[in-house]
From TrEMBL:
Keyword Signal: yes
Listed InterPro entries: DUF3515 (IPR021903)
Lineage: Bacteria, Bacillati, Actinomycetota, Actinomycetes, Streptosporangiales
UniProt keywords, alphabetically: Signal
Keyword Signal attached: yes
Protein name in the entry: Uncharacterized protein DUF3515
UniProt signal peptide: 1-22
Amino acid sequence: MRRALAAGGLLTLFSVSGCGSGAVEAPAPRPPAEVAARCRTLHDRLPQKVHGFARRATTPKSPLVTAWGSPAIVIRCGMPRPAALKPTSELVVVNGVSWLGVPVDRPVTFTAVGRLGYVEVTVPAAYQPPGDVLIELAGPIKAAIPASPDGSL
């Protein structure tokens, strides 16, 4: 089931990193070469600022992982298919990108699905409304990671 979200939203998300000004620790995914190439294109298209926060270094350094702000908003491209993704999963559509939200306690991680590569975004719950981050990232994701031609999730 898909639900559209045009702007803003009541989404709750979390971060994979802690507070601080050093490099953000976020493990890099290991996708197939074709997906990794799309992810490098995405990395180049991502904005220098998200939700008003500048990019931060990540460790290990990888073009598949990008972070902004403190606590960090983190995007990881080339993730495996989410285990929670089922044909009956409820998706939120933000500016043409379908997202699967997976709760972990109160926070949520969103994964862009239905594309030729899974893109995971975590946003600290402190950033409200967190849906604004998904809005900012939808354009670069659509441009770099094409939708699955067969409509598969």
